[in-house]
Amino acid sequence: MLVDVLPEKELVQQARLGRSGALEELVRRYYPDLHAYLSKLLGPHEAEDALQDVFIKMAQGLERYQDEDRFGAWLTTIAVNHARDLLRRRAGRAGPLPEPVCEPPLAENEDQGRLADAIQGLPAQFAEPLLLIYQQDLTQAQVADILGISIAAVKMRIYRGIRQLRALLKEGRP
Amino acid sequence: MNAHPNLDDLERLARDVAEDPGPLENHVRACAACAARVEEFRGEEDLLREHLAPAVQQPSALFLERIAAAKQSKARDGWWRQMATAAAVLLGLLFALTHPRKELHRVLEGRVTLSDGRSVGAPSTFENVGGLETTLEKATLRLSDGTLMELRPSTRVELKELARDEIAGLGGDDMKGIASGILVTVLSGSLSLSQAQGREDLLAGRSAVLAASRAPLRVGLAQEGGAALSKRLDSLAAEIGKLEAEIQKLEKENAQLREERKAVVENGGTPPGGAPGQLPGSSVKEK
Hints:
The complex is a heterodimer of chains A (174) and B (287). Chain A is 67% helix and 0% strand. Chain A is built from eight helices and no strands. Chain A has helices spanning 8-16, 22-42, 44-61, 71-89, 112-121, 124-134, 140-147, 151-171. Chain B is 43% helix and 22% strand. In chain B, helix 1 packs across helix 3 (32-52). The N and C termini of chain B lie far apart (119 Å). At the A-B interface, helix 2, helix 3, helix 5, helix 6 and helix 8 of A face helix 1, helix 3 and helix 4 of B.
């Protein structure tokens, strides 16, 4: 059976049974999105190592994991929590930024590289929902579930995160 | 609401976090300028989607191998395998007591140079040695205890097997109860140590103990190791300084000799030490 055409639920079952190729296919499917998420949060150099740790935790936790319908959310939660642990351990990371005054909206010609770099300058509690919503294309409800907070809290973090992002870009401080 | 709301209120409305959205919405419905501002704020979200879109990346073969290896390592913890493992451990202990132990590390990626001068590339194994280093490329090793060691380019590492009393001497509650382990010390560069229980990144001057069924334990040898390393570096620097001074002196003498030889040859004589190409002390043989 070709694993690359299997629906995800079946793929997870096959991977749990140790079927050759099923685990690899799961990794391949989620690698691009999680790599992009961790790159923006941790930087490209740490992202690869962090991603390896995330998939190892996934591979080792598969036997215990039962809710095959929520595999994506479960894996994303592992990635979010692992990134948080790394950010907490990271020495010299700046503390919370002061609440900025409201600036005019971001311009359309905002430099993509600077915008992506500025995400790394945000506290994790703001960077996480921004990336999960606007990069991973999850709904607010899904993000609330992954982060273990209310939908209202997700909206507030988006609001504060974008404000801080704007302020960082204006100061030219990534 | 007659006056225009401030930017912050309009942004809160755009993000659906306004405390009292009713009056704001009423105003925005009637005010094109404020409605445009709200749309601009919402437009930022489209910008973020566009700029944060993930680039397509694919995992490497080595990456996939590591994940598969980690799962197999976990799968081996099934209860019937634990019974077999217990029996194997007993046999292994008996074997270790009666036979010399040969620790083997395996190179998964890249190449390392061992302290005895051998260069070992993937996929090869080698015995436990005192030290190893990478050159311009990174390298990945699986140590004899199963730890994955990823060395950055130009990294030098010292590996040392420790017995219980040596580990206890390192201090710290974490070290209690550990019967044996491998002490990894980074002399230059940096590396990562990964086990199923956890991971540790080490920079130059840092050390960690690898013990069975534990995450790598960072030891407080930074200061001691750093001081020893500094001392060693100072001593090497002093030696290099002496060698440089000698080289300069020899170069100066060499230049002087060349000048003298040139002067003699120009005057038609035989330079000291014989003709060019003739060894000093040897006589010129007439053909």
